[in-house]
Amino acid sequence: MCYCSREAGTLYLLLSLGTVLLGVTLYNFKKSPFLDANKREALADYALPVAVLFFSFIGTYFFSGESLHTFKSSGAVTLKPSSLSLLSAGAVFGACGLGFCLSLLFFMDQNISSAMVNNPGNRLKKGSAFHLDLLVVAIINGILSAFGLPWIHGALPHSPLHVRALADVEERVDQGHVFDIIVKVRETRLTTLIAHILIGLSLLMLPTPLDYIPTAVLDGLFLFVAVTSLDDNQMFERLLLFVTEQSAYPPNHYIRRVPQRKMHAYTGMQMLQLGILCGFGFSPMPYLKMVFPVLLLLLLPIRHLVVPRVIERKFLDAIDTYL
């Protein structure tokens, strides 16, 4: 099959963007005046699966004659330890170097996710366990590595979105601006446990019906996660301030305390660092991608040593306090 024709490309865009559009529309339905509060909340909670199922059906049923790219699988699932004895000494030491870079990414991602989850704005009552969580992640990933299985760790934006899904949110109005505030979070590990059990059971759905989901729909799924994670993202909010009239700025306290020029300079430096990270992270060369965790770690000294030379610490403290 040929996946590079104009028809296939157009269909790919329609399915991918359609999944995003339908998902975001249902996700924002809770802000509409239609139906009652419970139905709006249910539509918002199931926005993503509804969008994926709907456009998977559209792609496989109405466009069955087109060249739709889907993930292929053999249907045979085997679980056996990796043959480490086949590796040479050079391969072992090379893997140690790459593994160190990967461990930096795990360390950063896990701790950043934990810090965002335990943000005071989430009003969590149970205490944090940063070191214990990291130990559990290390043990689990060690076992997964022995069998050649994918690793796990706390990730963005999934972890904050999970907290948001378990939270009761109310809208507050301040000086004409509407914003959401978390009132209570149902703190439980049961939802995560059930989710991972369902992920494991999804292996029973190979090759059918998972093979019927086009990759375009899956790409739309990830776009949906990216778009919805922009809610309450401070950098995205500050990015919008570049094209927002100053009188319409939201009444956030860091905007009142930080001069506009300094705030835009800080946002510009963040965008520059993000561009560099994306350049390495999306590089077609696999080994160049492994530099990504090292670059991510280098952002710490840049933030604490370089940025304060451009922007005064009192302004940085005002921005960080809002985080």
Task: Please tell me about this protein's structure.
A two-stranded antiparallel ribbon has the order 1-2. It is 59% helix and 5% strand. It has helices at 6-27, 37-45, 47-62, 89-117, 130-146, 158-165, 190-201, 215-228, 234-240, 253-257, 260-281, 286-289, 292-306, 313-322; strands spanning 167-174, 177-185. Helix 11 (260-281) packs antiparallel against helix 13. A hairpin with a 2-residue loop joins strand 1 (167-174) and strand 2 (177-185). The chain has three domains: 1-73 and 207-232, no CATH class; 84-205, no CATH class; 233-322, no CATH class. It is built from 14 helices and two strands. It has 323 residues and is mostly helical. One of its GO terms (biological process) is transmembrane transport. Residues 9-321 form the Bicarbonate transporter-like transmembrane domain. It comes from Nematostella vectensis (Starlet sea anemone).
